[in-house]
Amino acid sequence: MTLCNKALAVVVAGIVGVLAVACGGGGKPASVVLVTHDSFVVSKSVRKAFERETGLHWRILQSGDAGEALTKAQLTAGNPEGDVFFGVDNNLLSRALAGDVFDTYTPPTLAEVDRRYDLDPEHHVVPVDHSEVCVIYDRDWFANHGLAPPQRMGDLVLPRYRGLTVAENPATSTPGLAFMLATIARYGNSGWREYWKKLRTNKALVTDGWEEAYYARFTGGSEHGRYPIVVSYSTDPAAAVVGTKLTRSPVSVIQDTCFRQIEFAGVLRGAHNVDGARKLIDFMLSNRFQAGMPLTMYVLPTRNGVRLPEVFRRFAPTIAHPLDLPASEIGANRERWVSQWTDTVLR
User: Does the pLDDT value for residue 278 go beyond 90?
Assistant: First the structure.
């Protein structure tokens, strides 16, 4: 072999080595990046199961609450920070679709998902979980004060419940938005603002977000709380019992107030790892991931046949007929409704 041939062989060998590393041979595994909100939680065992099954490294990029995360995804549409976005709910769905954030993908596992939750026929996004937003109350507070708890949405404006309710601002909170929509679904365009006027007259408190409402103002979430009624989630009775020896949940749901909330995931347009993104979507609809959500994010699976943890079977009520509005109607009116709510409640 001549000196030139030896040199050429060395160069070729070097190129092959570089290509092998770049393609994953002997280097770090390729990554798939999930962009989501700050409330997303997945157990280590479930995360490792995905990585073991796919050979991919799963990175999670959290970007504030659901609204903030979606805004960032819209601003980077076509050149995203990650590969998959999780956390769009049915109340923000039209905004996400109008922003051209997602590519379409119909995962084979979608056949196992309850059709009630599949709201995008083109499958820019697919439904991953649901958890109804409801008014809940502190059972012990009402028992200790000798007052019967409210049973219907209309009860909250009664004089005997004056100064007892805390809700969230729909302009800054997803449960706050859901509850505003619940009042629209219940009372219609002609009556929902009048309901909020009565609620304001009845000294309901409004906070910017759920964390303050539940953990600072609600008597069931803080020893310093002063409000025994709060806008929260249908899974709260189960969440309040997890890790305890309680045989009865300290909080209860007013089922008449519940509004359906569904969270979706989709492949981001311009994703660097499209194949990995699709594998992650498939995994999020798998029985393994769906079964783990209740005890990490306190949400319910959209996949049929997933067995819930015992604490959810015992304590989380089934909301058979939650209030609902079409996503298209929400999209066409959301900004106007929030503006009207602001004029009615805060000004």
Answer: yes
pLDDT tens, residue by residue, 44-84 = 999 999 999 999 999 999 987 888 888 899 999 999 999 99
pLDDT at 27: 63
Does 192 lie in the same domain as 123? Answer: no
DSSP code at position 132: -
Length in residues, the chain? 347
Domain assignment of residue 304, given as a range: 20-130+262-314
**Residue whose tokens read 């629209």:** 184
Q: Other CB atoms closer than 10 Å to residue 124's CB: what's the count?
A: 20
Domain check: are 165 and 279 in the same one? no
Give the mean pLDDT of the chain. 91
**Measured at the alpha carbon of residue 300, what is the angle toward residues 294 and 301, in degrees to the nearest 5?**
105
* Among 116, 124, 129, 115, CA closest to 94: 124
3-state secondary structure 13-24: HHHHHHHHHHCC
Do 275 and 241 fall within a single domain? Answer: no
- Same-domain status, 120 and 140: no
Residue 14 lies in a domain: no
Contact 309, 295 (CB under 8 A): yes
In a domain, 8, yes or no: no
Write out the two tokens for 53.
């099954």
Per-residue pLDDT band for 254 (boundaries 50, 70, 90) equals very high
> What's the CA gap between 284 and 128, in Å, rounded?
7
Instruction: Name the phi and psi angles at 346, rounded to 5.
Output: -105, -10
88-129 residue pLDDT tens: 999 989 989 988 999 999 999 999 999 999 999 999 999 999
Rounded-to-integer distance, Cα 111 and Cα 232, Å = 31
